[in-house]
Amino acid sequence: MARKETAADAANPGRLKQIALTYKMTRRADKKIGLVLAAVGIVTFGVFLAIGFLIGHPIYLGLLGFLLAFLATAIVFGRRAERAAFGQMEGQPGAAAAVLDNIGRGWTTTPAVAMNRNQDVVHRAVGKAGIVLIAEGNPNRVKSLLAAEKKKMHRIVADVPVHDLIVGTGEGQVELKKLRTTMLKLPRVLTGPQVTTTNDRLRALGDLMSNMPLPKGPMPKGMRLPKGGGQRGR
User: Fold this and answer.
1) d(CA 118, CA 102)
2) What is the pLDDT of residue 90?
3) 3-class DSSP string for the chain
4) What is the pTM (predicted TM-score) of this model?
5) What is the pLDDT, as a whole number, of residue 63?
6) Can you tell me the distance from the alpha carbon of 172 to that of 169, in angstroms, rounded to the nearest whole number?
7) How many CB atoms lie within 10 A of CB 38?
8) How far apart are CA 108 and CA 195, in angstroms?
9) 3-state secondary structure string, 39-93?
10) Where do the record's region annotations for Disordered lie (predicted)?
């Protein structure tokens, strides 16, 4: 019992430190975050307290209002923190790969299955919706990368649907913050065993990441592929 309490006590400072760090990072991009959170908390608590006085139960409604105010503040903070994070990542090479890393269960993602010397890159995700190719970079250049990769997918797994998305803010593109939602909305057409079979067949292709010591997440802006780096994986 004592060990469990000690572990919990040690974990709490870590959580608080993480929350404080997240708040500081969010505040750099969202200067009004403090005022917004305070307003949400005060208004929510105030509404429930006022209702409590009206019906003759201020203590009960006050406690309920306090709990709901805390919950509402946490939800708003999470959403604005996520928005700020996406805003800072937008436009950075490899940002889509960082989003795909957290897409959730049911998806197998492989970053940088195709890339060129200009840092235009295509990532691959496999799930019950089929194969999704996610490109980031110059819209005109990534189209050739996508076409080559789709041709390869149809040759290896012709019976699996292949979707392609270009991350960006232009017409016909998917904003980084909407990438996960867009992928999760794709119709599910494969069963679990079919997804496993597809992954096994694609795993044999390898990918650029297996040959290059690239860090996860956004890639350094000065990074260039070695001479001979092309569109094909291993």
Assistant:
1) 26
2) 63
3) CHHHHHHHHHHHHHHHHHHHHHHHHHHHHCCCHHHHHHHHHHHHHHHHHHHHHHHCCHHHHHHHHHHHHHHHHHHHHHHHHHHHHHHHHCCCCCHHHHHHCCCCCCCEEEEEEEECCCCCEEEEEEECCEEEEEEECCHHHHHHHHHHHHHHHHHHCCCCCEEEEEECCCCCCECHHHHHHHHHCCCCCCCHHHHHHHHHHHHCCCCHHHCCCCCCCCCCCCCCCCCCCCCCCC
4) 0.60
5) 93
6) 8
7) 11
8) 9
9) HHHHHHHHHHHHHHHHHCCHHHHHHHHHHHHHHHHHHHHHHHHHHHHHHHHCCCC
10) 210-234
Residues of the chain with pLDDT > 90, as a percent, come to 24
Tokens 């709990």 belong to residue: 67
In the structure encoding, which two tokens stand for residue 49, read together?
A: 């307290």
CA distances from 222 to 118, 139, 162, 218, 225 (A): 10, 20, 32, 12, 10
Tokens in use for 188?
């599910």
Token pair in block for residue 95: 């940002």
Q: What is the mean pLDDT of residues 55-73?
A: 91
The residues pairing with 126 across neighbouring beta strands, listed in sequence order, are 108, 131
Residue 228: the pLDDT is 41
Q: What is the pLDDT confidence band of residue 87, given thresholds at 50, 70 and 90?
A: low
Mean per-residue pLDDT, 22-26: 73
